[in-house]
Amino acid sequence: MFFGRFPTFQGFVYMLVGIFVGCVFWVALGVVLGIVITNDVKRDIITTLVGLPASFASSVFYPLNMIHSSIFKAIVLLNPLTYLAQFLRNAYLFGTFDTTSFLILLVASGLLSLLSYYTARNV
């Protein structure tokens, strides 16, 4: 499970920060979808159609540098889950703080949180 490696304390703290910011993003997305979509069946279908492709169109299952297709790489780079996976992978394996991935994830989480706030206010 751990591939013979355990994160350093610093890497563990970075992972907690990344998990928190990632949770903010996905919760905000869930709030927006939950408010906009009122039918339970439609909500479940859209959640499945968004969640499953998002996990495969990111670098969760493989490192970003292993993608050779420029079209697929562009799709992967638009996916916020890619930056969460990169940040957590670097924190866990190397104990480093990937500033670029974190800032992109932080901006995406902030913008989606604002969108969810204004969506909830206007209901």
Describe this structure in words.
The protein is an all-alpha fold. The chain is built from five helices and no strands. The protein has helices at 9-36, 40-56, 70-77, 80-94, 99-121. α1 packs parallel to α5. The radius of gyration is 16 Å and the shape is globular. Helix content is 74%, strand content 0%.
Biggest sheet, open or closed, and with what strands and sense? none
The counted number of beta strands is 0
Look at the helices and sheets and give the structural class.
mainly alpha
Instruction: Count helical runs.
Output: 5
| Elements, N to C (H/E) | HHHHH
Q: What is the gyration radius calculated from CA atoms?
A: 16 Å
- Strand share of the residues? under 5%
User: Which blocks of ≥5 consecutive residues have pLDDT under 50?
Assistant: none
Helix share bin: over 70%
Let me know the average pLDDT: 90
Distance between the termini: 44 Å
Gross morphology = globular
Give a brief outline of the structure:
The chain is mostly helical.
Topology, element by element:
Layout: H1 9-36, H2 40-56, H3 70-77, H4 80-94, H5 99-121
Notable traits:
mainly alpha; 74% helix; 0% strand; globular
